[in-house]
Design the sequence.
């Protein structure tokens, strides 16, 4: 990934999420030529058919594009089988690569969506030129991509970099994976929304409640973020508490992985320094031996919503 | 490491711990020809002089040995400078490699002791033939060595695989690194001793107290382990509680790293299935998507007390 030769042809990239499916054709410089979006079909057959249709439609724009990459929300092995995804019931030992190769007729590679996002940032984004990188995506859950020695860490079975799933609190909320007190359960965008609802229900987050039109039940992380961006003290305080939870997990991951750069992605990153400021403050000084080592820069991802399709298209270049 | 050519000459290996200093000459097949041990001197000058004396004494046994490897308790950068060690005050930006090369006159490599132990197990021990391995050492603290794609993960600054230092409990004890509730503080052998003292002080660990000669204050992890090995229910229960703490941390690390094998080392491993049995039980089924992926074997290290000198000697082979 980090050391691959420059690409010379466009490829197709697919971002196969629990909610949305995006298919794009991407130029060698990382430019998204065109992208199609739709709700993710419920079945594997539906997903395969939708990708096939889109690739055929997009192929006219770049007739030289001859490989397909897919980033999928789930645990993907080296054969492109998606074994498990907490949010996509259709992904139970689903042979996504084999099905797509049969339907579309192009060589295909499938990887985990966070790994793919890391490839995108490494090749065309915030991590360009780095070799040891931790990327975390703060969204519905917490995704992760880990780059060591210039390559994405996939682990023994392709299930590596599930960085949201370590215990940070034995009394914490139950995680989507079934275990208690995992980092994801306190550091995801979903968790920020839950903090906002709890605080608003207690009458202590008026600005957040106002952002959500006065209805506690619809408060999500974005409402807390928007109110914080507007400078409301109740929301700023919530973001600081949330940033501490994110930072404590990042400290553990940085002690384990020793990255030279931490890249944060996900919708909340649009808050920029409203989130990253408190996050950097909470992170600083907590690494093991912090006084004797360099601090680790924490920067926002650059490709944002395009990381999935771009990273998948980058992976596909390896097949051309 | 994993893919290096077979060694053809003996090398020197040094295990530079907070308490003990060991210097050995090691044959290409991993055999320790001879080893000298002493308490670790208090100063860098003393350490360098002691290693120099021992290497000269051992050189007569293998005149062909022309390189020196050192595994040290601390954070070691790529230049062999030990920046920080929680237990060795002499190690503050200490240029150990440069000092040893000047004194001993042999090419020298210095790495973290847990990384070195991982190299030893990978080359001559329990992890031979594996490419994705997590090694944890349960001792005074919790050490770690991580192997990805057949090589030890060193991270951007050589500070990687500090696997004891992530939060598992916001209300847990303060760790040696200064942060609260890190895994090391509940999963080290030291923590097992503290559990034994607390339980015995409450009158609820009679067999552990008996192992320690009736003195609560001298109880250490080994007393709990010995009583458990003898089958005493109070001690067996303590070991099970401790094993759960170890397992919860291993689950997190395995979710992050996706190893094909977990190797456990440290003095407690002599308990074998008395510890590893409850540990495997507590680990099983807790990985993310556990129902859809293979379980990870947890095995004892094979080189035990020799892992430091053997691993250091293996690293030195790369200099010959």
Sequence:
């Amino acid at each position: 990934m980090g050391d691959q030769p420059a690409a010379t042809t466009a490829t197709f990239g697919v971002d196969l999420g629990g909610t949305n499916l995006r298919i794009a054709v991407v130029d060698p410089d990382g430019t998204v030529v065109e992208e199609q979006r739709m709700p993710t079909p419920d079945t594997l057959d539906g997903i395969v058919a939708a990708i096939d249709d889109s690739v055929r439609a997009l192929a006219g724009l770049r007739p030289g594009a001859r490989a397909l990459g897919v980033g999928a929300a789930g645990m993907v092995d080296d054969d492109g089988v998606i074994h498990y995804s907490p949010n996509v019931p259709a992904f139970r030992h689903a042979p996504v690569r084999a099905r797509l190769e049969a339907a579309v007729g192009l060589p295909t590679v499938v990887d985990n969506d966070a790994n793919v996002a890391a490839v995108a940032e490494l090749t065309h984004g915030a991590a360009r030129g780095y070799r040891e990188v931790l990327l975390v995506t703060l969204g519905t859950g917490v995704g992760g991509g880990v780059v060591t020695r210039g390559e994405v860490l996939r682990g023994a079975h392709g299930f590596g970099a599930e960085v949201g799933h370590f215990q940070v609190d034995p009394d914490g909320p139950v995680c989507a994976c079934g275990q208690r007190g995992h980092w994801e359960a306190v550091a995801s965008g979903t968790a920020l929304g839950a903090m906002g609802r709890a605080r608003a229900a207690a009458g202590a987050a008026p600005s957040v409640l106002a952002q959500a039109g006065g209805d506690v039940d619809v408060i999500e992380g974005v409402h807390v973020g928007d109110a914080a961006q507007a400078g409301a003290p109740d929301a700023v305080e919530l973001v600081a508490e949330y940033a501490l939870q994110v930072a404590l997990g990042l400290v553990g991951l940085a002690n384990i992985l020793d990255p030279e750069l931490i890249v944060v992605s996900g919708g909340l990153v649009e808050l920029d320094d409203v989130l990253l400021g408190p996050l950097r403050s909470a992170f600083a000084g907590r690494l093991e031996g912090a006084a004797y080592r360099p601090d680790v820069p924490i920067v926002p991802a650059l490709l944002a919503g395009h990381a999935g399709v771009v990273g998948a298209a980058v992976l596909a270049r390896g097949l051309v």
In short: Chain B has ten helices and twelve strands. The longest strand of chain B covers residues 32-39. Residues 233-257 of chain B form the longest helix (25 residues). Chain B has two domains: 11-123+305-317, 130-301.
